[in-house]
Specification:
The complex is a heterodimer of chains A (about 120) and B (about 375). By secondary structure, chain A is an all-beta fold. Helices cover about 0% and strands about 50% of the residues of chain A. Chain A has one domain: 3-layer Sandwich (Rieske Iron-sulfur Protein). With about 375 residues, chain B is of the alpha/beta class. Chain B is globular and about 60 Å long. Classes of the chains: A mainly beta (about 120), B alpha/beta (about 375).
């Protein structure tokens, strides 16, 4: 099902819009001109995930080394801080078992459209 | 100072049945300890520098402004508080907003408030200052929180450094409306030691359970409990905050505290509970061989613990197999020993609908309310 979220001007870079699709809450994010849509429900304890911060992520590395990837964006749950990759919805800790639903976003004639 | 008797004119709730009791909610100040200044004698306002606010740059300079001992070393990269907590100002600083955001949202009938900035009070070296802060806090919470909503209850705060002063504070406040327990900040002195007995005697006299919560001072301040070694990372420190409670539990039993104070109730708050499986198995076994060292321990150690000690749920265990939760609940007799807590508004908050879903249904009813009602009694009603 195609859902028109709104005009691209409605979600400036760095902003988000949370929409209701038949009772399902979905967050639509504009991160530096890239759009993402994520189910607004943390698979851990059911928190409103899309109220969390969009940030870069620390990559797995060797002991004592910190590598911060500011390009790869994760959404961090506002309750327990769990991370979910905005592209894939996967948790970096447990990608096989812990993931949030993400939806494909396209821009058609300045309109943001998601496939639900 | 003159004692203000709070006039409680809280509205009655429709339906008096209590189905959900949250045993660990942290309320915060709007403006730090300045919130307490009106409830303090002028001498202590002066001593603690709370008469007038200093310029903001001063707060970053060591030893110029007063603050309570707290964790300044182990930094949680996600921040210590939930990011979505409602209300203006610091999270959980507005009693009306907390009632809506926490109590209304989750259907919580009673919430026991343990001051968010207060658990580290025991690490303060100046005993009289700590006692003055505790007294002011008890006045403040009665005035600012208890009268706002009938669902709030408070744990009476003591400064345990001087047990005689602490007992005096218990006697002063214990019978006031809304206070259901005693919030005991942690010390390095283990819970079975004689230092504590004046506090235990006062608690028993007023039939108030003790609630002991980590201080966030552990292994940071010399008077706070010390862990085995100095952790490096927040993850280590936070995980191992359960070490001192284990030592306290064993100390309580071995010193015969529950023989000396047979009506004492001791609530281990936000410190885990599954560790008690191993600790009690070991203690029960060793006691059979070594009971002649502590002959006042007349029964199996776990019997004392199941009778007198209660644990709160948060942060709850999340084993890969859900049935392991049921096994631990059975071993630790959680149908009488476990009390629900959310730890609102902290980052590791547990919501009651989801976090405890692996607990068997009959036990869960007890965890949500009945065990709390047994522990705190009519003061919760």
């Amino acid at each position: 099902m195609r859902i028109v979220v709104g005009n691209t001007e409605e979600i400036p870079s760095g902003e988000r819009k949370i929409i209701d699709v038949s009772g399902r809450s979905i967050g639509v994010f504009n991160v530096d001109g890239h759009y993402y849509a994520v189910r607004d429900l943390c698979p851990h304890h059911g928190a409103p995930l899309c109220r969390g911060r969009v940030v870069g992520t620390v990559l797995a590395s060797e002991p004592t080394e910190y590598v911060y990837d500011s390009q790869r964006k994760v959404l961090r749950c506002p309750w327990h801080g769990f991370e979910f990759d905005l592209e894939t919805g996967l948790s970096p800790c447990d990608p096989r078992n812990l993931r949030v639903k993400v939806y494909k976003v396209t821009i058609q004639d300045d309109e943001i459209v998601i496939d639900v | 100072m003159t004692v203000q008797e709070p006039q409680l004119d809280r509205p009655d709730l429709p339906g008096q049945e209590i189905k959900l009791v949250d045993c660990d909610v942290h309320n915060y100040f709007v403006d730090g300890l300045y919130d307490l200044a009106p409830y303090m004698p002028v001498e202590w306002r002066h001593r603690l520098g709370l008469e007038a606010k200093p310029p903001s740059w001063m707060s970053g300079i060591n030893g110029v402004t007063f603050s309570l001992p707290k964790n300044d070393l182990y930094i949680n990269p996600t921040g210590g508080l939930r990011r979505d907590v409602a209300g203006d100002g610091p999270p959980a600083s507005d009693p009306v907003a907390v009632a809506q955001d926490l109590l209304d949202t989750w259907g919580i009938d009673r919430a026991i408030l343990l001051g968010g900035a207060m658990s580290g009070l025991g690490a303060l070296p100046q005993y009289d200052a700590a006692a003055a802060v505790a007294s002011a806090y008890n006045e403040w919470i009665a005035d600012r929180w208890l009268r706002e909503d009938k669902r709030y209850r408070a744990a009476l705060l003591i400064a345990p450094q001087d047990p005689e002063l602490a007992a005096r504070e218990i006697h002063r406040v214990a019978e006031r409306e809304g206070f259901v327990a005693i919030h005991v900040p942690v010390l390095s002195t283990l819970a079975g030691e004689r230092h504590w007995y004046p506090i235990y005697a006062a608690a028993e006299e007023h039939d108030l359970p003790l609630m002991v919560h980590p201080g966030a001072t552990e292994s940071i301040y010399p008077r706070a409990p010390q862990m085995g070694g100095v952790p490096t990372y927040y993850l280590e420190w936070h995980t191992m905050l359960t070490q001192p409670p284990q030592s306290n539990l064993v100390s309580l039993v071995c010193h015969g505290v529950f023989e000396r104070f047979p009506r004492l109730k001791y609530v281990v708050v936000e410190s885990g509970f599954a560790w008690a499986v191993d600790v009690l198995w070991r203690l029960d076994r060793d006691w059979k061989a070594l009971r002649d060292e502590v002959p006042w321990v007349k029964r199996s150690p776990s019997e004392y613990v199941f009778e007198h000690v209660r644990f709160t749920t948060q942060p709850f265990i999340e084993p890969k197999r859900r049935e392991h939760v049921a096994a631990i609940c059975e071993i630790l007799e959680c149908d009488r020993t476990l009390l629900y807590s959310s730890d609102y508004p902290h980052w590791d908050f547990d919501n009651p609908k989801r976090a405890l879903s692996a607990i068997p249904k009959t036990t869960l009813d007890r965890v949500f309310a009945l065990n709390a009602l047994d522990t705190f009694g009519d003061r919760l009603r």
